[in-house]
Amino acid sequence: MSMRRYPYVxxxxxxxQPMQGNQLAVFAKSDGLSDAEMQAIAREMNLSETTFxxxxxxxxxxxxxxxxRIFTVNEELPFAGHPxxxxxxxxxxxxxxxxxxxxxxxxxxxxxxxxxxxxEGKPAFGEMRQRDPEFGQVHDRETIARAxxxxxxxxxxxxxxxxxxxGFPFAIVPVKSLAALGRLHENFSWRAVEKFMKSTDARFxxxxxxxxxxxxxxxxxxxxxxxxxxxxxxxxxxxxxGCAAAWMAKHKVAASGERVLIQQGIEMGxxxxxxxxxxxxxxxxxxxxxxxxxxxxxxxGEFALP
Length: 306
Known about the structure:
By secondary structure, the protein is an alpha+beta fold. The protein is 21% helix and 38% strand. Strands 1-2-3-4-6-7-8-18 form an eight-stranded mixed beta barrel, surrounded by four helices. Helix 3 crosses helix 7.
């Protein structure tokens, strides 16, 4: 029986260190794969996300971007941050000369990613510009505290808990301290959170703490974050980081254009660095949401399918 062969790479995203950051599987071609097969492969990889590059006419790619589809173990996503950055970083390595821009066409539309060198032997820094944010529902502090298993006193009351989307909606929950962020797993139940989410306009929750416990060179401000969903804890969530950047700019947690470093994945031993910024226009609208980081190719393999 002849077999169809599909090469892939595993990329660690939002890190310059091997075996840190968020893992991503990138399949360089997807011709001949059905939607069900893509979903089955993503489930087999069992990573937060798996991406599939769709081959098409070079003229179409120049006009619309390189077509990429993103799958979790359960579903196809319209947009996700670390798969976008990691896939673009992989594509940038295929050229024999340095590439400073890659455009991907995702289910939400075209997303540009720019690259800049960080020195010889170091992975390039990529930065994606996400869609302009949409600000949704403001959530009740007591209700969301019960849903996530935290005392209401652990959640800030001086800024709103709000759903934000730059292609995928997250409820941004500001916690008061690193201690509260560290206790999150103690009473967290995905079933309870999922039940709560069904009554809201958000899909997941992104917990953000302004007290990072440390400063990092090159960042104006450093914060910490966690995101838990049906696949467990996520080491780095680029789509949520963009929403957080927009939320910080809107509610004056960060200044317009201020470079903020979000550290995520520390509690699970996969430190990730997500560099974010967003601008506030003269009319008060938040625009130009950018999320960046580095990526390391860790492994290569091949699926053989009948």
